[in-house]
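Example 128, ligand protoporphyrin IX containing FE.
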Amino acid sequence: VEKPNMPYNLIGEKKLSMLVEAFYHRVARHPELSNLFPDDLTETARKQKQFLTQYLGGPPIYTEEHGHPMLRARHLPFPITESRAKAWLGCMHEAMDDVQLEGPVREDFFHRLALTAHHMVNTDEREQ
Ligand code: HEM
């Protein structure tokens, strides 16, 4: 059933897609993030679009292809510090500006992402 009040439907597929593109454009150029990611971000962006679609209440297309997200476990191979979580969120904040995602839907989405990003931290700053 279509749920018009779901954030996914409020944002729309096109804007979500633009957001993910703008986000990885910034990640690829961020001094604290770029070295963690593959040079070709096509597949990373494709999976992130799938994930965020279901995270925002759209169809569960990430899980259909990749199984349960288990996001923290999938991030364990990468040393994620508080400072990298902040950098990730900074790129997302700027990407939201880039695509002019505004209003309560942006605030709610960003707040959830901040909680998720801090949950991904798996490495103490001093270990870096
Ligand atoms: C994958 C870094 C936070 C969702 C990845 C990858 C890296 C990474 C290096 C692997 C990319 C690849 O090899 O293709 C980070 C860092 C974060 C962070 C440094 C800082 C906190 C998040 C958050 C979310 C997220 C907050 C979701 C809201 C994903 C997804 C994938 C992914 C869906 C693809 C997983 C798969 O392979 O199926 N991330 N991430 N990440 N990340 Fe993050």
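Summary: The pocket of protoporphyrin IX containing FE is lined by residues 33, 36-38, 43-44, 47-48, 51, 66, 71, 74-75, 78, 80, 84-85, 88, 113, 116-117, 120 (CB under 6 Å).
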